């Protein structure tokens, strides 16, 4: 994501445009997997950022609040991971051994959500779905 696009995004949601926030967005946008705060912090430090870990946490909270990023816990390990919210929710398949995460392109639950809404009267806002297994590399090594 270019600085110009990030600047426009921050302006449109009404948050202050800072170098640290831009750097965090760039890291998340470039990542092909959800990242923990600690991973983001280490990547920032590798790029000679003077950011504090507490600033990363506060920034993540603000970006979640503004629906710029989403938070999930794909490994059920009490470590939240973050990724850009790209106008759709996501589902993942996660390798139990190497932690590789692959995004599932289609959501199979639209009809199911409609049925549940009709049966319960709930207004469904969101759902999460994750599948766990072994990727091809780990499956070969497992055998």
From TrEMBL:
Iron keyword on record: yes
A Pfam family recorded for this sequence: FUR
Keyword Ribonucleoprotein: no
Residues binding Fe cation, per UniProt: 89, 127
Single GO BP term: negative regulation of DNA-templated transcription
Cofactor needs: Zn(2+); Mn(2+); Fe(2+)
Comment on bound cofactor: Binds 1 zinc ion per subunit.
GO molecular function annotations of the record: DNA-binding transcription factor activity; transcription cis-regulatory region binding; zinc ion binding
Keywords: DNA-binding, Iron, Metal-binding, Repressor, Transcription, Transcription regulation, Zinc
Domain of life: Bacteria
Binding, Zn(2+): 95, 98, 135, 138
InterPro entries: FUR, Fur_C, WH-like_DNA-bd_sf, WH_DNA-bd_sf
Protein family: Belongs to the Fur family.
Name used for this protein in its record: Fur family transcriptional regulator, ferric uptake regulator
Organism whose genome encodes this protein: Caloramator quimbayensis
